[in-house]
Amino acid sequence: MSSVAVLTQESFNEHRSGLVAEKAGGSSAAGEEEAPAYKDAFPPLPEKAASPEGTQEPANAWTSKIRPLKSSVITQVFHVPLEERKYKDINQFGEGDQAKVCVDIMHKTGAHLELSMAKDQGLSIMVSGKLDAVMKARKEIVSRLQTQASATVAIPKEHHRFVIGKNGEKLQELELKTATKIQIPRPDDPSNHIKISGTKEGLEKAKHEILLISAEQDKRAVERVNIDKVFHPFITGAYNKLVADMMQETGARINVPPPSVNKTEIVITGEKEQVALAVAMIKKIYEEKKNATTIAVEVKKSQHKYVIGPKGNTLQEILEKTGVSVEIPPPDSSSETVILRGEPDRLGQALTEVYAKANSYTVSSVDAPSWLHRFIIGKKGQNLAKITQQMPKVHIEFTEGEDKITLEGPTKDMQMVQSQMEAIVTDLVSRMDYMEISVDPRFHRHLIGKGGANINRIKDLHKVSVRIPPDNEKSHLIRIEGDPQGVQEASKELLELASRMENERTKDLLIEQRFHRAIIGQKGEKIKDVRDKFPEVIINFPDPAAKSDVVQLRGPRNEVEKCSKFMDKMVADMVENGFSVSVPIFKQFHKNIIGKGGANIKKIREETNTRIDLPAENSNSEMIIITGKKENCEAARVRILAIQKELANITEMEVSIPSKLHNSLIGSKGRFVRSIMEECGGVHIHFPTEGSGVDTVTIRGPAEEVEKAKKQLLSLAQEKQTKSHTAELKAKPEYHKFLIGKGGGNIRKVRDSTGARIIFPTADEEDQELITVVGTEEAVREAQKELEELIKSLDNVVEDVMNVEPKHHRYFVARRGQVLRDIAEEYGGVMVSFPRSGANSDKVTLKGAKDCVEAAKKRMLEIIEDLDAQVTIECVIPQRFHRSIMGPKGSRIQAITRDHNVQIKFPERVDGPGKGGPAAPLAEAAVQENGEANGEVLVVEEPTTPVDPAVPKKCDVIVLSGRKERCEAAVEALQALVPVTTEVEVPFELHRYIIGQKGSGIRKMMDEFEVNIQVPAPELQSDIISITGLANHLDRAKEGLLERVKELTAEQEDRSLRSFKLTITVDPKYHPKIIGRKGAIITNIRTEHDVNIQFPDKNDDNQDQITITGYEHKATAAKDAIQAIVDELEEMISEDITLDARVHARIIGARGKGIRKIMDEFKVDLRFPQPGAADPNQVSVTGRPELVDEAIDHLLNLEEEYMADVIENESKMTYMKPLGDRGASSMDDGGRERGPSKGFVVREAPWQTGSEKVREAPDMSSSEDFPSFGAPVAAANKASPWGPKRF
């Protein structure tokens, strides 16, 4: 084996520094020997392949440190015989309960299970995982996949605890090992039988292990020996050495109770022979010592602890030296008698030791005021640590409230410690002082400040300690300790703070809680502004959960008053802007209030500066809530009502009712007034604000209904003024509609006959069964009686049968039984059952309250009569109008079918050239029935005969079904929906403005007026605009279009006035000054005069022309403003001065701060030379003559000041070594100059080709070895093992 050269740190340093000199005349082979081999310098990692036994792997740098790692994952295989398998279904192997159990075991234990079936149908389970996971999995497998058996084993009761082990560990280990469940009887159970359950194999193993434990315990014995406590020290020996020797000699365990336990019993356990031997030895010692001599001596109680020593070590030491036992009375005894027991010749020596130990420690005290104690101790005990480190056996004790310090320790050390402590006390008394000041406890927490900020600042500033008593002490005294001067200053400052706080005022502002969040603002930004405005005032808001209106202000009296006024003004503004008014608007008009894309509501909000909230679409509420300033809310209310009035025939009437009756007319939660509004066709009744004293009540709605509501209101008011009585009764909610009757007919009869008003609950009320009766006592009694009779009859459920021809069945059950649901809802929840489809029966069963069944039966007969009387009428309307007639989502057709109780079928849509666009796939064509997109498909057969022009096309025919008079009325309603077209003449040049950007203008008008507006194509040059829509919409649309034309004409005239232009001639050198920094000056002129100012482009011929565009008078004013600036600039002069270029950077400053400061201070302009300028020292100063002179003087002064620094720095630089000269890197550790570095070279490197020998280290100055990015490199002839070089 060839020798291997190892690269050491020294040889590496030599190679790197080039200290190894080349031998003159040496061959290249010599150089190659000097270079280390690559494998030696960078040893490879050891190979994984195992070497044959007996061969030794070659040593290298890695192998010596690598230790084999043992796998933490183990694999075990368990077998379950066929007869012991719990799940024996062979056909379901890998499925069923067995597979589920295995998956559950894997999840529970974390082990991996693989099952396989043996030829004898036994089960093999391979379990992989960590050891404890595998053992747990094995236990689970045995208990859940193997049939279980049980057995009992009897062992003596006293051996049970050895089976259980400490904390049950032995039992758990046994269960895991044998995969069984072992049940041991409780200690209070006399039974000695242990029950084992598991597999047969596991049972045998567990029984064997338990019997082994018991057999082992049978060999052991326990012996208890009673010996007086005073002789125990002789048995244990000093430091328990004697008892330890006995245990080692005999092998038995000897348990002697410790001195602190008052027991005489010594317990010996072990093998019988060992125990007998140990007992004999103990008794022998006792026999020897029981006649020992004793002497009693008196030792001060305070010195007993020194005789005992730490952890009793001193007593053990005396016992070891003299063989004498020293008995000390217990700490709770007042006795001072110490008894010594032992051999007579040794008692004298022991007595000497006792007295020596008792007198080895001294107790003394040092007088020191209690307030100085913590200064003596020092921060974290630093001062005391210096003493205790020198004298570690001395104990120094401080007692709170006592003016002394107790010292305790060895007599020889006490004198030195006492003198040191007295010196410290004397020093502190001479230079420390304290003072107590009285401050009201309610100011204490303010003196402390948030997080102790105030008190910590005072402590740090004056180097004092301040003790403020806790709140529970209720003490006025604050104690200040420290340097006398610091104490005086701190007490003065604290008293000033307290005095200022006494001048403080706390004021409670009553602000409604609903305003609190608005005052605080999102993320607290608004209250932060208030606190910044009044920094001395503390503002506390109550917790939101407290529902309190009290906001507390605390601070100096004047500041609190100012803050209070400011916040009152804030609240007043909020109250003014928080005025709210509710406007009742019929639900069908809400969409018109909103407008297309919210245009109408947005416009009203912006123009009136109010917040307008509309109820949700699915809500039954008709109230629109307006919030803002009172006058703004009224303006918005008027505008919203105007929209409603314009859209419908709405009448408004005012009724005078005494204000004292308003609350009783409105009723609890508005129940009374709501019942009147619902009964009178949904009119809106508006009562004035409570407490206003206004008697006027406003009723708004259709004229007839308003009159009706007025009569009811006045009648009810009259009743209230005479005598009003109220009664309540309950009925199931499903009966309410039947009690009310269709159109309120039933309840109206009751009211007309009795004169009482009956109020039913609304959907949002909690008690849905409660019905309220209001009126005179007699009227209420009669109405209540009638209603109770009705309700009683409704509770009487009956079943009835009626005949309905099968042809009509489909009408009742169509649309998921909608007709039947309506009947059930209207007639007290009557259940109507039709025969099954295909049963060919006409019997229909009705079940419910007797009156409800009769009423429902009557209604169904009416429907059947209508169905029998049905006719079909055709209405011809061109197909192009059908979409318009249907309305959005079929709303118009749905309204006609509902109002006239007819069925309407639209024909299939036929698309073709000139018929609305390209042909649509036939599969997509569907009949539009009653405004619903999913109606029945009308099958249209192609005509086989020639089409008669007089006969209408099928695609234009709309079919209506129902009673004749209703169908005719519906046809009129359909024809009224056919749009008509009118033409308006608008100048062609305005068309593009009417259309607007991307058609926004024309879309807005079409949405607003609900029409279609057609603007002619630009190439036609036509002035005619067509408007198509419903007749009642056309006039409004035409007026709106003409109004828009007027606006556009006025805008055109305004544009012509705004396009006035004038030019002003200004020398280009003044242009930057007119523009200003970042365009500030010119922007100001543009904004102030509302003009556009254009400066010439770089390539423009007229570089001195500035163009101004706008209204003539404003353009002239802007020109005058520019001329004024030019006149001012022309008065300025420019002077060049010479400033040394070396100080320019300092004058300019970081980011130009210095130069900007000079220019702002002297109102001049400074221009420094650009890099490469002919004269780098020339600086131009421009401004008014007197200001230029002052600026030049200032600049020259700065130059003189900065040049002194420059010259000083340059003189220092002459003494410094140039960077390129001999630097530290060219010197070795000994300070000698190094030779030229050869670099680091290795041989047999992977990048060297076979023929290539060791060469010199690469030349760092070579462009081939170290190419620059982008630099051309000559092609290299040498091949490289890494492949061709790519640059």
From TrEMBL:
Family matches, as Pfam families: KH_1, KH_Vigilin
Subcellular location: Cytoplasm; Nucleus
SUPFAM superfamilies (UniProt xref): Eukaryotic type KH-domain (KH-domain type I)
Gene3D superfamilies referenced in this protein's UniProt entry, alphabetically: K Homology domain, type 1
PROSITE patterns: KH_TYPE_1 (PS50084)
Molecular function via GO: mRNA binding
Any single biological process term in GO: cholesterol metabolic process
Every K Homology domain range: 147-215, 219-287, 291-359, 360-426, 431-499, 503-572, 577-645, 649-718, 723-792, 796-865, 869-979, 980-1046, 1058-1127, 1131-1200
InterPro entries: KH_dom (IPR004087), KH_dom_type_1 (IPR004088), KH_dom_type_1_sf (IPR036612), KH_Vigilin_N (IPR057778)
A GO-annotated cellular component: cytoplasm
Keywords: Acetylation, Cholesterol metabolism, Coiled coil, Cytoplasm, HDL, Lipid metabolism, Lipid transport, Nucleus, Phosphoprotein, Repeat, RNA-binding, Steroid metabolism, Sterol metabolism, Transport
Coiled coil: 773-800
Region (Disordered): 15-59, 1220-1287
Domain of life, per lineage: Eukaryota
Major localization listed first in the record, in broad terms: cytoplasm
Low complexity bias (residue ranges): 21-30
Function statement: Appears to play a role in cell sterol metabolism. It may function to protect cells from over-accumulation of cholesterol.
Record's protein name: Vigilin
Protein source organism: Coregonus suidteri
Upper taxonomic lineage: Eukaryota, Metazoa, Chordata, Craniata, Vertebrata
